[in-house]
């Protein structure tokens, strides 16, 4: 059955997976980033997460509640965790972001949850109506997105603090 599932998977799905792996490996290295570039992955993961939830579970209050609970919990955890991961960048208008393997893990989590849920619903469409299935899937979608959004909020707040402590450092602008 697994070979059939893999064979019937559209080619664009594997392209998405390759892109996520590439971006995850890039995120594992220290790098200079602008504020705009810092938005790309959190917003892409938010879109992928919401798209997965909306297309598979619709406007179900159970699905949205689970997503919001998962997103809120991880957002709060990332936003309030200790330790800074950004410092002044070497290029004007940028900050230096310390690398981590966590984004790769979370991007692959969103991908795998999306893929697994799609396969499960293709095999047994009735699962979409099961509250436990919907709650689990949507909670994982939300938690993964919440991680990225919380980290983004934390990084932007740290950037603002750097600017307020060093107002003469115009090279730390928000381009």
UniProtKB/TrEMBL annotation:
The chain crosses the membrane at residues 12-28, 101-123, 129-150. It comes from the Bacteria. Pfam families: DUF6622 (PF20327). Keywords: Membrane, Transmembrane, Transmembrane helix. The keyword Transmembrane helix applies. This is Transmembrane protein. The lineage of its organism: Bacteria, Pseudomonadati, Pseudomonadota, Betaproteobacteria, Burkholderiales.
